[in-house]
Amino acid sequence: MPSDDVLSSDSAVSSDSAVSSVDAVPLIASVASDTSRPAAPAQRSAQRPPLAALLEAVLMVAERPIGVAELATGLGGSAREIERLLPELAEAYVRDGRGFRLRHVGAGWRFYTADECAPWVEDFVLAGQSARLSQAALETLAVVAYQQPVSRGRISAVRGVSADGVIRTLTARRLVEEVGNDPETGAILYGTTDYFLERMGLRSLEELPPLAPLLPGLDDLDDFVSP
Fold this sequence. Notes:
The protein is mainly α. The protein has helices at residues 9-12, 21-32, 41-46, 51-61, 68-75, 79-95, 118-126, 135-147, 152-159, 164-172, 194-200, 221-225, and strands spanning 100-105, 108-113, 150-151, 176-181, 188-192.
């Protein structure tokens, strides 16, 4: 965004500039009176769009879920009114068959691609690129998600291979983070982040699918625990 100080005296006229000091005066006056500059606060207040439109505009450019309190503070609106409008907007997008959805995930609200449009969006964005996370990274992420807080040693024991490199990758991608130390061993413990919830489209870890149906039956258990 450009600075409010559109032109300083140094940038307007310099010794090697082709613009003379006489020509610079009307030039600066012209720039200063440019109607494209943002309106004054009083003017903006008079021209204020509906709160629903402001919510759409802000959430459209948000890079993370935005909470109701932050929206109310930033837009100068009522938190109660915003709490009412957000679900209404979300329902309207579904009802109108729009290609995006407004979802409450993690600590706030954000726009996401509609599920039915996701395959086409994926093809367009990825264009044949490989998956962002390897199979090893996905397996490690699953262990952290379901057993957190968990140490690297425990992750390695579950997967049967060292997890050091994968943990570094997941940490760098903001999917897992250090959440403390084991009181007995002092080992660093890891857990998932709010960004993980955001990427998974979850409000909390309680919305993770139950793990029991994915586990082997008792008859098959020996195949998994035997060396």
